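A further point concerns the way the authors explain their paired sequence and structure data. An entry of this sort, consisting of the sequence and the corresponding backbone structure tokens, reads as follows:
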Amino acid sequence: MSTRIHARTVVLTIVAVLAAVLATVWSMTLGSEDLGPVDVVRALVGAPAEPAHTFIVHSVRLPRALAAALVGAVLAVAGAVLQALVRNPLASPDIIGVNSGAGLVVVFAIVTSAPAAVIPFGAFAGAVATAFLVYALTWRAGISGTRLVLVGIGVNAIATALTTLLIVRFPVDRVSLAVWWQAGTLQGAEWADVTVLLVGAGVLLPIVLWFVRHAAVLQFGDDAARALGVRAERSRALLLLAAAGCAAVAVAAAGPIGFVALISPHIARMLAGPMTGGVLLLAGGIGACVVSVSDLVARTAFPVAVPVGVLTAAVGAPYFLYLLARTNRA
């Protein structure tokens, strides 16, 4: 993967970001009290507006809308990095158990009434530990993408089973929040969640962009990478750490929202060609758009609002099965 950015990719990335911004503004117009787009924009830019509108936009709808866009972006980047690192289109943090590992620690924190401040750190620890466990179990003098996906599916099942065990072993009043959170929801998103996402993205994305050019070199083997001056194990570990970290901050903010990390890189590659540094940014824009629109639909298109994770799973699961069947035929 190179860091070269083509003009077509730049245009597509701008379009994706604009689409995410439009979805964000549109999302803030809808709710228990509908607002006009002009009301939302006036509240956002600080122009004179109804105090009630300003309160609704700044305190209720803007944190949720920003959280949706950021969760989608970091999930898409995590999926793109993993797929490039192991050269397997089925690799994504929710398929290979990274999200479930983060979710297991977060559910444990919720049911044991741990302070909310420890949840992002717990999610990060769970995601990183799971990623390196899958990596270690897959390593056989190299990484096979198919083997990594199969091992990841097994680890994912174990983490999910342990999470279920926690839920059934603790009192209902403690697990109700964990059950709702497990579905992947942005309801109740606050500025603290946005802060976690911004800090996580600000730290991890530069690492990804700096080391992403090493991903292509690593495909030719560690000896070839060393001959080209690339420290293979360090680059592979840092990319894996960064991808797990991106998934972790998303899980800490919104729960395990599935299939966004799988689908967004695929859409980016279909639009802009093989994965490059520029396509990685495009995937982030598409991920932001996918979650923003999905959350809008999930909370407004049904008689009762549903978690956004339910909607992404309904769309993403058939697509995953299609990819799996296509991979088996190859």
Remarks:
- Residues 55 and 284 are 30 Å apart (CA to CA).
